[in-house]
Amino acid sequence: MLNDDRFIFWLRVFHSLMPHVDILYNQLQKQTMDPVELSKAIFRFEENILKERQNIDNIFETSQNNPTKKRRQDDTMIKKNRCKRTYPFLDVTKLKTELQLFYKRTDFRDINSSVHLLKFIIENNLTLIFSESYKLLKIISTIPMTTAEVERSFSSLKRIKTFLRNSMTEDRLTALAMLSIEKRIIDNIPNFNEEVINRFAEKKEENRVNI
Fold this sequence. Notes:
The protein has helices at 5-28, 35-54, 67-86, 92-104, 106-109, 114-123, 131-142, 148-160, 170-181, 183-187, 192-210. The chain contains eleven helices and no strands. Helix 1 (5-28) runs antiparallel to helix 2 and helix 8 packs across helix 9 (170-181). By secondary structure, the chain is an all-alpha fold. The longest helix has 24 residues, at 5-28.
């Protein structure tokens, strides 16, 4: 049966359709679902099912003898093995299927950050459907990708807190470090130096009045 063409065809059809059904089902289980949200969820479901229906002619993959296809499969296997070595607790095959579904649906593609996508999955009860993506998004959201920002902070601290400024208080050190690290933002503020001088003069005047 596993070699039967009809069986393989319908298996792939349902493999494409059922994730959309699962997403809609779990969204309808939300306790805070309102009529507007319900209407949007059903509309997205119909839209995605229609897309799958239009692509049904392309559901069969190209022949295994295609060299381009073979090379692409080899690249995929290399990436899978690398991912397994780095994160052995991830099911790479299931993760690939989930990510393909992400790229198909506009409601997922429109989300512009991993944190917002993670929040969307949690709020819509999709943690079980997208279990591997959920794990991956938690990793991405908690582990910094590079150490450049941390290294830049220490470099700024080394320049600011010199031997002659060793008695600087924590509040002043934090403020100066922020000014140094976020220099690009400060450069875009018009008349920044004049504003600082005016604030400083006002505080001095307040102190003289209080005295």
